[in-house]
Specification:
The structure holds two protein chains of two kinds. Chain A has one domain (about 45-200). By secondary structure, chain A is an alpha/beta fold. Chain A is built from eight helices and six strands. Chain A has a five-stranded mixed beta sheet, with helices on one face. In chain A, a hairpin with a 5-residue loop joins strand 3 (about 60-65) and strand 4 (about 70-75). In chain A, helix 2 (about 85-95) crosses helix 3 and helix 2 packs across helix 6. Chain B is of the alpha/beta class. Chain B has a five-stranded mixed beta sheet with strand order 4-3-2-5-6, sandwiched between helices. Chain B has a domain at about 70-125 and about 165-220. Chain B has eight helices and six strands. In chain B, helix 4 runs parallel beside helix 7 (about 180-190). Helices cover about 45% and strands about 15% of the residues of chain B. The chains are: A alpha/beta, B alpha/beta. Chains A and B meet through helix 1, strand 1, strand 2, strand 5 and helix 7 of A and helix 2, strand 1, helix 4, helix 5 and helix 7 of B. Strand 6 of chain A pairs antiparallel with strand 1 of chain B, so a sheet runs across the interface.
């Protein structure tokens, strides 16, 4: 009987199909994803059973950090021509007598993460050279009754984009006092409909237990 | 002779074939792997979910507008307290009771956010409606009723609208509660299928009740009376 001879050297695996496959997956991921914007504050959203997805456009987000700072964010609108962000900033500057240059408006358009900058420091923020300087300026939007910039941001955003909807992204540990303050300011501006951003959680109810 | 030449040609061809360089793809695979991992980690794969809440409009001019009246027998007050505690009391406190000195306040039932806590209290009050919604959903799932998803949703909304025995839940938050509690309680409303609920501002005597029950120093100001 002839002996089967096993090859002594290790078999050479052709990696080319694997590379093809990875290429396809990589291209798919690159095209379908939007890179997560780094937020100025870490926020752990609470859980709920709601399954409605967050809309992509026409939202203003209020980020309520657990340390009591409020950050705000707008989107650019469903079309790039709309350019809501620079328009909102320009209108806001007009209210406070600050004129922003085209370069500054463009920087604001590109900077898509939430911001918590008093309007007086906005120019400094937009002209900042590195991210360290930017994060140092993120002190939260002032919202006391004497200098209620948050209220003005809401007003201006709703003037620029009438379809804008308020979403609230809060940390589970944010004290309710602050949440109530923000809700109050929103209600003063006649915004009564809110979307609360949550993470999905499954809940099961045992019906028999209740019927007993 | 011809044969010899032919042979050498064959040999030459074979040699040329052997000289085709075999490119080792392994490093490329490594690189791709790294890129894929990077993209998967940096991207928001699951989109965030939202929960909608509509607050009652603010009453700006109390002389022209009046707060809507609801029956006290159906009212359940849910007070969010400090340290993730929830307090429940039914009905309402009458003006002559809270303005008495010292104020006569109803006892609070202390509970928590677990399935045996606030959920069982609410489900107990909301049994009839919850069972109706549940039966309807079960029939849709089992295929006994053929209905599109949208109309199923509106049917549930109609069931909630027609309900006139379930509780009217008033959610009130003490300032020491946190945002997580607020979302949790709204979530419980959805889980228990409560037809009518609203978030209202806490009154000074309710703050006092929570503070007494939680055993903390009172912060309610006399001027609020």
């Amino acid at each position: 009987m002839p002996k089967i001879r096993l090859p002594k050297s290790s078999p050479h695996i052709d990696m080319t199909p694997m590379v093809d496959l990875f290429c396809v997956v990589l291209i798919f991921l690159m095209l379908t994803t939007t890179i997560r914007q780094p937020e100025p504050a870490n926020v752990d959203t609470p859980f709920s059973i709601s399954e409605t997805p967050l809309p992509d456009f026409n939202i203003m987000t209020f980020l309520l950090a657990s340390d009591g700072k409020v950050f705000i964010n707008f989107d650019n609108g469903s079309d790039t021509i709309l350019k809501y962000r620079p328009k909102i900033l320009a209108a806001m500057g007009e209210r406070y007598g600050i004129e922003f240059t085209d370069v500054e408006l463009r920087t604001f358009e590109k900077q898509k993460s939430s911001m918590g900058i008093p309007i007086g420091n906005m120019k400094q923020f937009l002209n900042a050279k590195d991210n360290n300087e930017r994060t140092r300026l993120q002190v939260g939007i002032p919202m006391d009754s004497t200098d209620n910039q948050l209220s003005n941001w809401i007003l201006v955003a709703r003037q620029v984009n009438p379809n804008i909807r308020a979403t609230i992204k809060g940390d589970s540990n944010t004290s309710f006092e602050m949440v109530e303050k923000v809700l109050d300011i929103l209600q003063d501006r006649n915004v009564n409909r809110f979307n609360l951003i949550t993470s999905l959680e499954a809940v099961k109810i045992n019906l028999e237990e209740i019927q007993q | 002779m011809a044969q010899v030449i032919h042979q050498s040609q064959v040999r030459g061809k074979r040699r040329a074939k052997k000289q085709v360089p075999h490119i080792d793809m392994t490093p490329m695979v490594d690189l791709m792997c790294l890129l894929i991992v990077f993209f998967m980690l940096t991207t928001a794969f699951s989109k965030a979910k939202v929960m909608e809440i509509v607050l009652p409009e603010k009453i700006k001019d109390p002389t022209k507008q009046e707060a809507p009246k609801i029956s006290a027998s159906r009212t359940v007050n849910v007070l969010l307290g400090p340290d993730d505690k929830v307090y429940v009391y039914p009905g309402a406190v009458k003006p002559e009771e809270y303005s008495a000195n010292p104020p006569i306040l109803p006892p609070l039932t202390e509970t928590d956010f677990s399935a045996e806590g606030i959920r069982s209290i609410l489900l107990d009050r909301n049994k009839a409606l919850f069972r109706k919604i549940n039966d309807f959903n079960a029939e849709v799932i089992s295929g006994r009723i053929e209905i599109s998803q949208d109309s199923a949703k509106s049917m549930v909304a109609q069931l909630k609208k027609d309900d006139d025995t379930g509780p009217i839940v008033l959610i009130k938050a003490h300032k020491l509660a946190n945002y997580g509690n607020f979302v949790d309680i709204l979530d419980e409303m959805n889980i228990c299928g409560i037809a009518r609920y609203s978030f209202v501002k806490i009154t000074w005597y309710e703050e006092l009740m929570v503070e007494r029950a939680a055993g903390i120093a009172s912060t309610a100001t006399a001027s609020a009376r």
